[in-house]
Amino acid sequence: MLMNALFDFHASLTLPSPLEGERNLERRRPDQIHHLAERWEDISNPSPPLEERVAVRAEGRSPEARAGRWWQRGLPWLITAGCFVYLYSRLARAAAAEGRGLGPYLAAIFENVSWSRWLLLMVPYCALFVLIDSLVVWRVITWFNARLRYADVLPIRASAYILSIVNEQVSKGAIALYLSRRNGIPAWEVGSSMLFIMFCEYYYLLMWATVGVLLQWDRLPQVFHVIPWLALVSAAVFVVFYLFFTGRLSSGRVGWGGAVRNRPLFRSFRLARLRHYAAVIALRSPAMLTAVVVYGLALKLFGVTVGLGEMLGYLPVIFFGAAMPGPMHSVAIVLWVLLFPEQPGAMTTFGFVQHNFFILFNAGMGLLFLRRATRELLAKAP
Question: What's the domain range around 284?
Fold first, then answer.
């Protein structure tokens, strides 16, 4: 039912009503009217079915282009497979050195961990993360869209973690749809706020990853040494991006830039000021600092002791690398083993349970709020 609502609502946003179109047409310049006429001609002559379009495009591509696309799709999977092969070989060698099979070797690691103490660390941390994440969504919606209560945002933010198991961006889209239908906020505008949050998340992770690389430069693989340079480039991009969306790079003419800037999808960026970007990063930072403490204490349960300063150098880099495509993501998968090669079994187990428990626990919290979120959506849906 929610998927049908999503398609129906998206269709209602795609084209304006005819009456609204006539009113807007009177205010258009001749060149804009010509552009609208071309768009109407495209709409009036619908394109062929999807299967025909895909077949035509496939026939038009050269064999080299098709091969290139297969490489682009297959390379990340090959790299990931290589990482798992590396982990398996390290684990098999460690198990053989102790005269055990791989299964008994890993089982012994699980037996030696105090899981009750581990849960006492992880459950409050995951719950705190949900509260902080919901706080960020609430503040951004309040700034740019509508004044809502925190209690109104928490259920949908928590419920969206169920979709995060598949894709985090899809979960943000679900939040936008929910708030649009329940609170009457235009979907593109609340979608703009979700885009703003994702934009800030990138700079939040990049900032802490830069700190981590500078703290542990010699210990981290060289692929992560590019992060400070990436931070400099991203800072320059942000300056241009900010000036563009606040209108300070505009020459006064509408043009292409003005058309992009004035789209509803970028509304939050037009309204945002530096204090808003800084506030999102500041609101999220307690989650990172808490994670440093929790992961440091949890690592001791697996037989490895690190200081908080050392963990501050490792963890943000792992979080950033795991969120980025390309070589960083692949290395982040095996980074715990690379950092502590003398205990590959414990580090593989640690990375596996930390990551999967975090995702599944958040999804479980989402299930607790899902009934309430669905009830409120159905009660207020038009």
Answer: 112-380
